[in-house]
Write a structure and sequence with these properties.
Length: 138
């Protein structure tokens, strides 16, 4: 039985293994408080320690994780990553922010204004980022 609800999205993220100095841009497929799935141009072996971040989010926080699966797909590899950080605060904040930005993007789309995820994130952060940060800082 699934422990966390998956939230679908298509945000760009950066992923690097802890044994390499190279980072790879990935396309985030879905995210939950337990981890995420993304499409990467290269394969990672299950068990590989990785670091990831979402460049378009307000803070440059990085989170560590471990690859749980890696399957070939049409645009590279679909990689499942479980978060290592047991602190629910960062994960909740990241998931919440991604979901709010995606909702904002879809609302604009219904109004006839089509934005990619990166542009929607930048606009959402400029308009609502300060208020969002205050709601998490107590």
């Amino acid at each position: 039985m699934r422990q966390f609800i998956r939230h679908p999205t298509d945000f760009p993220i950066m992923v690097s293994s802890e044994d390499s100095s190279s980072s790879y841009q990935a396309s985030l497929c879905n995210i939950s408080q337990g981890g995420l799935a993304c499409r990467l141009p290269r394969a990672y072996s299950p068990g590989t320690a990785v670091t990831l971040y979402i460049p378009s989010l307000q803070t440059d926080c990085r989170v560590s994780g471990r690859v749980t699966r890696c399957l070939p797909c049409t645009k590279g590899f679909r990689v499942g990553i479980q978060f290592n950080d047991k602190s629910g605060s960062f994960k909740s904040r990241m998931v919440e922010q991604v979901c709010l930005i995606e909702h904002y993007r879809r609302e604009l789309d219904r109004e006839g204004r089509v934005l990619d995820s990166e542009t929607a994130a930048q606009e959402w952060i400029a308009r609502f980022g300060r208020q969002f940060a205050k709601s998490f800082s107590g």
